[in-house]
Write a structure and sequence with these properties.
Distance between the termini: 21 Å
Order of helices and strands: HHEHEEHEEEEHHHHHHH
Number of helices: 11
Helix content: 40-55%
């Protein structure tokens, strides 16, 4: 399936009907149940995490392995975005390696516009010592958060690369964080190259090493800010940075205004409790007293004078951060 067609579907609030239509386009041998089958919660721990667990379909993959589709209603007080291990424990017991070798589980919460999609697989084999060896996916690593307000780009790209004769190994690779890490570092390297070349071209008398050092500092800052942005610490907005960038980029796509008009006062505000900039509305920001946003004034570069093009930031946001 084309990732461009898949991504908008992943960005919608969870609806079982959406996935009942989408899964046959992603996987072979899909069958949907006429009525979902309840899989009762068996102990107080499970009932403390979820209110319902049901299977609504399955697929027989090209290698004959079976994957079951589950929908779990998560309790209101559970942190859906962070509680990966606890949520996964609700579906591991559903893998019996006969009727199901793996599970795709949709964790949903009443009133939430996002949801978690988790893949879990288990395979037992006879080891060289003639003992049973069981291998299973790591609880923290094979999962995506989807829905409104989420980019879903990575998930769409990974799903879009599934072959028509998908096997269990193909599906495991689509969710593999190791594979995603390699892709991330390739994207980071390209973004680094684009920004370093832009800085070198715009700042006279700079050496390549100067541009690369400032690029590394700038990308380090942005990556860290994307982490705390996800927690809602930047004016209580999870799209704070790209929203402000898009606003400035629309006015001045070929200039250097994002760094000059927004990032410079923004970085100072993060590192100084009493910083004030007239005519610059930054919103409610935390004071981060860790030194990451302190700007050194040196004989070579004062970051307050550094020029960075909005087109370079466009690449960084589109091809790396978002």
């Amino acid at each position: 399936m084309n990732p461009a067609d898949c991504q908008p579907k992943l960005q919608k609030t969870y609806q079982r009907e959406t996935w009942q239509a989408l899964l046959p386009q992603l996987l072979p041998g899909v069958e949907m149940f006429a009525q979902p089958q309840d899989f009762p919660l068996t102990n107080n721990y499970e009932r403390g995490i979820a209110s319902a667990r049901r299977q609504f379909g399955a697929a027989t993959l090209a290698d004959g392995k079976r994957i079951a589709f589950y929908e779990i209603e998560v309790a209101p007080d559970i942190q859906l975005q962070s509680n990966r291990v606890g949520l996964r424990s609700l579906i591991v017991k559903c893998i019996d390696e006969v009727s199901a070798h793996a599970v795709l589980a949709f964790f949903v919460q009443p009133g939430k516009t996002f949801y978690r999609l988790t893949y879990a697989a288990k395979e037992s084999r006879l080891g060289e010592d003639m003992k049973i060896v069981t291998e299973q996916t790591a609880p923290r690593r094979f999962t995506y958060v989807l829905g409104q307000g989420e980019s879903c780009r990575t998930a769409a790209e990974r799903f879009g690369k599934l072959p028509s004769n998908t096997t269990l190994a193909d599906l495991t690779e689509a969710f593999s964080v190791d594979k995603l890490n390699k892709e991330f570092f390739a994207d980071f390297r390209k973004a680094f190259e684009v920004m370093a070349n832009d800085i070198l071209a715009r700042n006279k008398n700079w050496e390549q090493s100067d541009a690369e050092r400032e690029t590394q500092t700038l990308l380090n800052r942005l990556l860290f800010l994307y982490f705390i942005q996800r927690k809602g610490w930047l004016n209580r907005q999870q799209k704070y940075l790209v929203t402000n960038f898009n606003r400035i980029y629309q006015e001045d796509p070929d200039g250097t205004s994002f760094n000059e008009r927004f990032l410079k006062p923004f970085f100072v505000k993060l590192s100084s409790e009493d910083a004030y900039y007239p005519n610059v509305e930054l919103g409610d920001l935390p004071f981060l007293n860790g030194g990451l946003f302190d700007d050194e004034v040196g004989s070579l570069t004062e970051r307050g004078r550094m020029k960075v093009g909005n087109q370079a930031f466009r690449h960084v946001f589109d091809r790396l951060l978002e």
